[in-house]
Amino acid sequence: MSNGWTSAKKWIASEQLRKMRAVLFQVYVLLALLAFSALAMLANAFPVFQPDVFFTKELQTEIPTWFGWILQAVSWPGYAIPSMVITVLVVLYLAIVGLRWEAISALLAAVISLSLNYLIKVTIRRPRPSEDLVQVFRALTDFSFPSGHVMYYTAFFGFLLFLAFTLLKHSYRRVILSLLLALLIVLVGISRMYLGEHWASDVIGGYLLGSLALALSIQVYRVGKDRQVVHQPIAVTGAQEYEAPSPEENNEIRETLKNPLLPQKDIHDAKHPDRY
């Protein structure tokens, strides 16, 4: 086992605790999904809601300049090139430390969120906020509903939060990582409205559909783990939960195999302890 795998394995919680956390997280995510269809129909029928305009103007007026800079920084990872670079780096890191199925699932979460966002945007075709209604920090040419930034953060960073919540043992690393990811997900919605690039209803739709993408990614991840799609030395489940024999156990196996009276089935079991 590599040094990276050995180090990462020390942080992984037990299988029972991981499963309990996974169920709790999915219940939380799924509760937000039912409202998306109704909101999408409203966004299609009414390109501009007056409450959206009022809320954005109030937000841009009340937020201090220093916090506005923070919100601009929060939005930066969600634009096209930064989001691709961040996704690739995170996926590569997960694969290098031995979390190969987690790496594949994280990439899937990003792809699902971006694909769903594009399909809904070209279906609803809602225009972006215009400068005659609110202050627009950066003019974008694609459609507005739902927010792509919010969907990406909810699905991709949300999946990383899920992994931290379900895999890592309780430690300051888990707490800090979870807080950072949660802050990004929460603040990106405010930042998109403050920058005048999305309406509040776009942001809400992004959170709802992003939650759907997240729930789907988590389900695929858990099915893959249960069916042993991949074999990896850390964060394993069920029959995969196997430790290599100690030197003393290896000696016992060798002595057992020397016994000419041992039934063939027992010899096979001694040679392949990882099957049980």
Tell me what the structure shows.
The longest helix has 27 residues. The protein folds into two domains: 224 residues, no CATH class; 29 residues, no CATH class. It is mainly α. The protein is built from twelve helices and no strands. About 3% of the residues have low confidence. It starts with a helix and ends in a 5-residue tail after the last helix.
Topology, please?
Blueprint: H1 3-9, H2 15-30, H3 36-45, H4 50-62, H5 65-75, H6 80-96, H7 100-124, H8 148-167, H9 172-194, H10 200-226, H11 247-257, H12 264-271
Question: Which descriptors would you attach to this protein?
Answer:
12 helices; 0% strand; mainly alpha; 276 residues
General shape: elongated
Oligomer: single chain
Task: Please trace the helix and strand order, writing H or E for each element.
Answer: HHHHHHHHHHHH
Mean pLDDT: 81
Largest sheet: none
Strand content: under 5%
Note the gap between the termini. 20 Å
Question: How much helical structure, as a percent, in the residues?
Answer: 55-70%
Total helical segments: 12
Give the class from helix and strand content and strand pairing.
mainly alpha
**Radius of gyration, in angstroms, nearest whole number:** 24 Å
Number of strands: 0
The poorly predicted ranges are 261-267
What's the domain count?
2
